[in-house]
Write a structure and sequence with these properties.
Strand content: 35-45%
Largest sheet: 6 strands, antiparallel
Oligomer: single chain
Helix content: 10-25%
Radius of gyration: 21 Å
Number of strands: 16
Order of helices and strands: HEEEEEEEEEEHEEEEEEH
Number of domains: 2
Shape: globular
Structural class: mainly beta
Distance between the termini: 35 Å
């Protein structure tokens, strides 16, 4: 496979090589600790206590006050007398309209130590309370992962499409669909094979996110998906794929996520023995 040699020098003394590997490993360990810390933060995904789909019929939601419903103008809550939420720093009482929420957008309402996420996923409005004391968060001890190895740092090339392609993918929730714009694909060589991944727009300017499965999926890594963030390409279109940083999506930990699944063409026929593995919590409940 084609790899970037910078993390571990290929020339010089044995001490230099060991030093390079130690720095590479330390950087990865810091990244992984930070990623798990965000996941298990006070109101992170591990704190979600339920996923509730709203309709035009007002309903009670566990771990949230009032009656919740949705309609043409968005989400509405009717709070009980003497109850208040804090939205955007302001206390609200009685009836409150959250307004139009864009797809993949959301608003947080605070109720005591609970944050109530009001969001839109796959065209549907949802409510997800997040409580710090949720047992999944309290019991979390970290995500298992393969040991970082520089050989899984691969140079690829970004090939843009003539126009971004709207791409419909499934979701961890049965029947739900997500639509993302795919600006192009990334080609690379792995285990002697020419491969490619359809890329979606990423979280950093000009960067990408790829969702994929591989031959380890459902064996040592989470069956449904993993995600890899890729920085913007260089002037010649080169990009770096560091599979050591392949991460689980929230659906690997909780049934209350609506994560997208990879497009069919992103099912790699090789075993990517790098990055995050099946979480301990899932391993205990998977047949």
């Amino acid at each position: 496979m084609t790899t970037r040699n910078a993390p571990v020098p290929t020339t010089g003394t044995r001490v230099d090589a060991d030093s390079g590997l130690a720095a590479f490993t330390a950087e990865w360990e810091e990244w992984h600790r930070d990623k798990d810390a965000r996941l298990a933060s006070e109101h992170g995904f591990l704190a979600i206590t339920g996923l509730h789909w709203l309709t035009d019929e007002p309903q009670r939601v566990p771990d949230a006050p009032g009656l919740w419903s949705t309609g043409p103008e968005g989400v509405t809550v009717e709070l009980d007398e003497g109850t208040e939420l804090v939205v955007d720093g302001a206390a609200v009482r009685g009836r409150y309209d959250f307004g139009v929420i864009p797809e993949r957008g959301g608003v947080d309402a605070v109720w005591g130590d609970t944050v109530i996420e009001v969001a839109k996923r796959g065209g549907h409005h949802i409510v997800r309370p997040r409580r710090p004391g949720h047992p999944l968060r309290v019991a979390f001890t970290g995500t298992p992962a393969y040991a970082p190895d520089p050989r899984w740092v691969v140079t690829g090339r970004y090939v843009p499409f003539a126009e971004p392609r709207p791409t419909t993918v499934g979701a961890s929730v049965e029947g739900l669909r997500h639509v993302y714009d795919a600006p192009g694909r990334i080609t690379f060589r792995l285990d002697g094979r020419e491969l490619s991944l359809t890329a979606f727009n990423g979280y950093t300017p000009g960067g990408f996110t790829v969702l994929f499965t591989d031959a380890t999926s459902g064996v040592t890594t989470y069956a449904a998906n993993r995600s890899l963030r890729i920085d913007a390409p260089g002037p010649d279109g080169d990009v770096l794929l560091d599979f050591n940083r392949a991460t689980n999506l929230p659906c690997a930990y909780t049934d209350f996520a609506t994560c997208p699944l990879p497009p069919a063409e992103n099912r790699l026929p090789v075993a990517v023995e790098a990055g995050e593995r099946i979480p301990h919590e899932r391993a205990r409940v998977t047949p």
